[in-house]
Amino acid sequence: MNPADVLRILLLATIVVLAILALAYLRHRRLDWKTGLAWVLLALLVPVLGPILVISLRPTRPACRLTHPPSCRRFSQCIV
Fold first, then answer.
1. Domain residues of the chain, as ranges?
2. Counting beta carbons within 10 angstroms of the beta carbon of residue 34, is it exposed (0 to 12), middle (13 to 18) or buried (19 or more)?
3. How many Å apart are CA 42 and CA 50, to the nearest integer?
4. End-to-end CA, the chain
5. DSSP per residue over 56-74, as a string?
6. Cα 8 from Cα 66, distance rounded (Å)
7. C-alpha span between 23 and 60 (Å, rounded)
8. Residue 65 has pLDDT above 70, yes or no
9. Residues 6+ away with beta carbon under 8 Å from 30
10. Which of 21, 22, 38, 72 could staple 54 via S-S, CB 3.0–4.6 A?
11. What is the pLDDT of residues 13-48, one digit of tens each?
């Protein structure tokens, strides 16, 4: 196998893994459908920079805010 082919395969694998990580990250965020669609499109259509931006910019708050008192931090008692 040609070294250039190996590098292409590694680059493609990196892009796929980054996209999967970004989509997994977005799955745990509370977004309305328009905002969620925009972030998903950014993660999928911009090959390397898109997933990095999705994870680093933190589109919205997570499902359970950690600003509540410790007794309320369990997911069953989380007030959103």
1. 3-77
2. exposed
3. 5
4. 54
5. HH--S-BSS-TTS-GGG-S
6. 42
7. 14
8. no
9. 60, 61, 62, 63, 80
10. 22
11. 999 998 999 899 888 888 888 988 998 898 888 888
